[in-house]
Specification:
This protein has about 240 residues and is mainly alpha-helical. It has two domains: about 1-35 and about 180-240, no CATH class; about 40-180, no CATH class. Helices cover about 50% and strands about 10% of the residues. It has helices at about 20-40, 40-55, 70-80, 95-110, 130-140, 145-150, 165-180, 180-195, 205, 220-230; strands spanning about 1-5, 120-125, 155-165, 200. The strands form two sheets. The protein has a two-stranded parallel ribbon. Helix 1 (about 20-40) crosses helix 8 and helix 2 crosses helix 7. The longest helix is centred in the N-terminal third of the chain and has 21 residues, at about 20-40. Mean pLDDT is about 75; it is low at about 85-90 and about 130-135.
């Protein structure tokens, strides 16, 4: 894994904080660790994903819901307090013998790969990053704004129409996230970045330019000053630790 320093120049003039190079490196390491650990639990995650697909393809009979605004409000508050996420596809409803038989048939067809191109509407996690600019600003200070907000509010879901093949992959990622320990992933990623990460400092001759003139060019001395502690060894706060 590597990060190139081209986009980093003197702080306050153009580019980003030099320490952001290290944070970018850790972001890459987290993605690599997630991929590796998700692969280890893929079998279990795929099994859970297929069960969710069966329920979506053969839904249960929805029970008539009585209007109870106070109860709904209390349920929502409890969900927020317990950081629970509502899954529309898990609201199974009543399952009759006929539905149970149909689900067995559909499960068999899924195993044989006969329904891969069939389309269905699923509720998946909303991948859009709200307040992106603000989140980037806090991220450079080592604060994960999304995680902070996520601890107060349940994750948002959006409905999308996709094939069974695509829905399975989306579900596998969600189920994999439940099966791994993210604290372990972040710790392993930080170790990976510390021991195996590489930052390429290209065009260092321009950064280390020693001559001074009155032409108004950027001295880049701020870059030299900020890069030296990172080269020599330092601690950088990231949103993962």
């Amino acid at each position: 894994m590597k990060v190139e320093a081209t986009k980093f120049t003197e702080v306050g003039y153009v580019g980003r904080d030099v320490e952001s190079m290290v944070r970018d490196l850790v972001d890459v390491a987290v993605q690599m660790e997630e991929t590796a650990q998700y692969a280890q639990v893929r079998g279990r995650a795929e099994e859970a994903a297929n069960k969710r697909l069966v329920k979506l393809l053969v839904p249960g009979i929805k029970k008539e819901k009585r209007q109870n605004n106070m109860a709904d409000l209390m349920s929502m508050l409890n969900s927020i307090q317990n950081n629970e996420t509502s899954n529309n596809d898990e609201d199974d409803g009543e399952v009759t013998d006929q539905i149970r038989d149909e689900r067995l048939s559909v499960a068999e067809q899924l195993d044989k790969g006969l329904l891969e191109d069939r389309e269905l509407t699923v509720a998946v996690a909303d991948e859009k990053k709200a307040n992106g600019g603000m989140n980037d600003m806090y991220g450079q200070m080592g604060i994960d704004l999304g995680q902070a907000l996520g601890s107060m509010m349940p994750k948002q879901k959006v409905e999308r129409t996709m094939s069974v093949r695509e829905a399975r992959e989306a579900f596998i990622r969600e189920e994999s996230s439940k099966l791994v320990n993210h604290a372990d992933i972040y710790a392993a990623a930080i170790r990976r970045a510390e021991n195996s990460g590489i930052i390429f400092i290209d065009e260092i001759d321009k950064i280390a330019k020693g001559t001074k003139n009155g032409s108004g060019e950027v001295s880049r001395e701020g870059v030299q000053r900020d890069i030296l502690p990172i080269v020599e060894g330092s601690q950088v706060n990231t949103k993962y630790g």
